[in-house]
Amino acid sequence: MKTDREIQADVMSEIQWEPALLGNEIGVSVNEGVVMLSGIVDTYYKKRLAEKVSKKVNGVKAVAEEILVKVPGSNIYTDVDIAKAALSALKWNSAVNENTITVQVENAQVTLEGDAEWAFQKLSAQKAIENLNGVCCIINNIHVKNKIAAEGVLDNIMRAFERNAIIDSAGITVNVIGDKLILTGTVRSYAEKKDAENVAWSSPGVMHVDNQLMIDSSVNISSTFIES
Asked: Cα separation of 121 and 144, whole Å?
């Protein structure tokens, strides 16, 4: 099992390996496998990317971040400018129905509201505006309208797990309560835990995913990794 110092070194290396990130922008500390990221970046995209790459590191149990977004010359981008850019990004995203989503911007903080048929549309709306200039924060309040089709949903999710090269479905149990999916069991890494959660979000009508998966990096890795 990795020590906190080894995890810290690996996370810092992963951040430095990512071309879009500057290693000296982000600080990394680790306590019992929980990674804390700090620092200042110039885009919201970098903030999200730092969190994403940190989650891939073996031994990481959770990631918390206090990264601040400070856009150089941010007075160039008014809230009106950001709102217009966000609406345009949603309009040109084929996965999103921009007519059902409203955008509010205050002090460079973007709030998304409205309805979506699928959870992936809610996530796609957020991703569409993450890399826009001037955005410092995104609050996604989009409501997913469809209800979970209970019949066959568990089998469909487990088959999706089995198709995923990273996820070991043998260690995961899925329960459905109303519009919520509850994931329990054991996985080998934080990245695997998040991949399982992402698969669960792809199910029709899912409004909540309660990810209770435990991480045990000592579990033997049996999956085959394919180089692309």
From this structure: 9
Q: What is the mean pLDDT of each run of 10 residues along the chain (228 residues)?
A: 91 92 89 94 91 90 90 78 95 90 94 88 91 91 73 76 80 82 88 86 76 78 35
* Inter-residue contact 192 to 157 (CB < 8 Å): no
- Among 225, 223, 211, 206, residue whose Cα is nearest residue 61: 211
pLDDT of residue 84: 95
Beta partners for 187?
215
Distant-in-sequence, close-in-space partners of 110: CB < 8 Å, separation ≥ 6: 82, 83, 86, 103, 104, 129, 135, 137, 138, 139
Per-residue pLDDT, 58: 87
Kindly give the pairing relationship between strand 109-116 and strand 101-106: antiparallel
102 CB contacts (<8 Å, ≥6 apart)? 112, 113, 114
Tokens 């809610």 belong to: 122
Residue 183 β-bridge partners: 174, 211
Separation CA 18–CA 37 (nearest Å): 15
Helix (H, G, I), strand (E, B) or coil at 89: helix
C-beta separation of 181 from 206 below 8 A: yes
CA distance 70 to 65: 15
CB 94 within 8 A of CB 64: no
Check residue 148 and give its pLDDT. Answer: 61
State CA 188 to chain mean position distance: 18
Q: Which two tokens stand for residue 154?
A: 């568990």
